[in-house]
Design goal:
Strand content: under 5%
Helix content: over 70%
Shape: elongated
Number of strands: 0
């Protein structure tokens, strides 16, 4: 039972069946792609909660108040940390100054001892030379 337009075509062979299969598969893939694209285009864009229709001015005001509180807390913590850091830096600077004074005193003492050692060395040399000259 062939349709009238295929009456003269005869029985379809394997090549014709293969062509029908390929064409049918191509049409189905095209339809699926078109439906997927259409459904993707119909999906609404994600919107942040504050801009949705149900977000109220009270919610926005509450969020702004919370943000202000968090900002104030952050500023307070930052200033406390700066004060603590300043105090600890001052302690470190004071200990460094004390060490510098100690090092300066040791350098002066070392210099005085070196001078005294040179004087004693010179005195010993004179004492050694004196008996040698007397002989």
């Amino acid at each position: 039972m062939n349709p009238p337009f295929l009456a003269n075509a005869g029985d379809p062979g394997p090549t014709e069946y293969y062509q029908y299969f390929v064409i049918t598969a191509a049409v189905l893939v095209t339809i699926k792609y078109t439906l997927d694209l259409w459904s993707h285009l119909r999906q609404p864009e994600p919107v942040p909660p504050l801009y949705k229709e149900y977000a109220s001015r009270e919610n926005l005001a509450a969020l702004e108040a919370r943000l202000d509180n968090l900002t104030a807390d952050l500023d307070r913590n930052l200033s406390e940390n700066q004060r603590a850091s300043s105090a600890s830096r001052e302690k470190i600077y004071e200990s460094i100054r004390a060490l510098e004074r100690g090092v300066a005193a040791l350098q002066k003492e070392t210099e005085l001892l070196t001078q005294r050692l040179h004087h004693l060395d010179a005195k010993l040399d004179r004492l050694i030379e004196r008996p040698a000259r007397e002989n």
